[in-house]
Amino acid sequence: MTKTTPEKDLRIETIRGLALFLMVAGHVIGSSSTLGMKVPDDSVLRYLYDSLVYVRMPLFTAISGYVYALRPVNTGSDLSRFYQGKFKRIGIPLLVVSTLFFALQMAVPNTNYKPQLTDIFSIYFFSYAHFWFLQSIFCIFVVIALLEKAGLLLTLRNFGLVFAVALAASFAWESFPDLFSLYKAVQLFPFFLLGLGLYRFGAQLITQRNVVTMAVALVILVAMDQAYLFELVDLDETDMAIIGTALGLAAISLLIARRFYFKPLAWLGYFSFEIYLFHVFGTAGARIVLNKLQVHDTWVVFTVSMVMGLFLPVALKLVLERISPLHFLSVAFFGAKTRVNRATPPLQKKATA
Questions:
Q1: pLDDT, tens digit, for every residue of 71-88?
Q2: DSSP state for residue 43 in the 8-state scheme
């Protein structure tokens, strides 16, 4: 398997675009009948949400691990420099954009959640809206850098031991605190490791035999999950945690092992960070405006919200890159200096194996 850089491997950008699409769709629908579009529990959209819950954010996390593995920390790396870079890239947008979102939730009528001003400081330290993922992924980077610095992920054997410990810990996520969304970081850490491992040890892990085994396992696990959703079997939370985790690991492994190139999704993947940060401004804004206009058709609201959630952040990014006086906002919002020559994704390059 030829290893490539993120700019050249547009198939990985395609999978990242797919993860973005699923993530935005999940937030449009809402995790319950009181959030997002507030769709009822017996609706098609709720069924789709529940069917993909074990893949959506785990896939997003696994892609982060895969891309990290392209330029990893090593035993000679300066950890302070690595952490400073991650704070600029993740921490600054977390502080700025979460504050902006908090202010808009307070000011805009008809939002699903109306925070109090006294809650403002808690959003920087505990789970808040979708920003919990930024806290969690930062925690993951802190731990992964320490493991890399100690050389504990350099061999498949050591990687397997670390993965086994992370997997066991993920089933005890409730024992970990909400501070910096640590408990969610523990849940997602095995998937980050999965992405890292599939890149670093792809020759050993991505074999024809393993792919067939994963495909068979996935079919069985999906069948069990569907049987649970249709109340054909009685499974408790522990059973579903095991089934769901295994389902996510198998599905993601297959997606990365047999990744494909699809230009629209690869284009979205290029703007993954921007879309993740700002998609809720488009999805919630579209839903509120449509409701004000007395448009309540489920599929119209879903479609318009998806379009706004995916493309409003892209438009914002491109505008800020092209207007020089606004470049400082791009740094504050996206945590990186703008480069005009990066405004258009390099999709003219050939997708490589």
A1: 999 999 999 999 999 999
A2: S
Helix 182-200, helix 56-70: angle, nearest 10: 50
- How far apart CA 245 and CA 309 sit, in angstroms, is 28
Residues 6+ apart with CB under 8 A from 35: 112
Question: Read out DSSP for 250-265?
Answer: HHHHHHHHT----HHH
**Amino acid (1-letter code) at residue 24:** V
Cα dihedral 141→144→146→147 (10° resolution): 180
pTM score above 0.85: yes
Structure tokens at 209: 């035999």
User: What sign does the CA torsion over 335, 193, 131, 145 have?
Assistant: negative
Written as one letter, the residue type at 161 is L
Handedness of CA 90, 92, 93, 94 (dihedral sign): positive
Burial 302-322 (b: 16+ CB within 10 A, else e): bebbbebbbebbbebbeebbe
Q: How far is CA 33 from the centre of its chain?
A: 22
- Residues 135-165 have pLDDT tens digits of 999 999 999 999 999 999 999 999 999 999 9
* Nearest Cα to Cα of residue 135 among 149, 150, 122, 145: 122
Return the structure tokens found at 258: 């047999």
Residues 6+ apart with CB under 8 A from 127: 135, 178, 181, 184
pLDDT digits (tens, 9 = 90+) for 10-24: 999 999 999 999 999
d(CA 56, CA 28): 13
End-to-end C-alpha distance for the chain, whole angstroms: 7
CA distances from 217 to 56, 221, 249 (A): 19, 6, 10
CA distances from 260 to 14, 68, 123, 181 (A): 7, 20, 38, 32
DSSP annotation of 176: S
Are 307 and 21 spatial neighbours (Cβ–Cβ below 8 Å)?
Answer: no
CA-closest candidate to residue 74, choices 143, 153, 139, 141: 153
Q: What is the b/e burial string over 197-225, where b = at least 16 CB atoms within 10 angstroms of the residue's CB?
A: bbbbbbeebbeeeeeeebeebbeebbebb
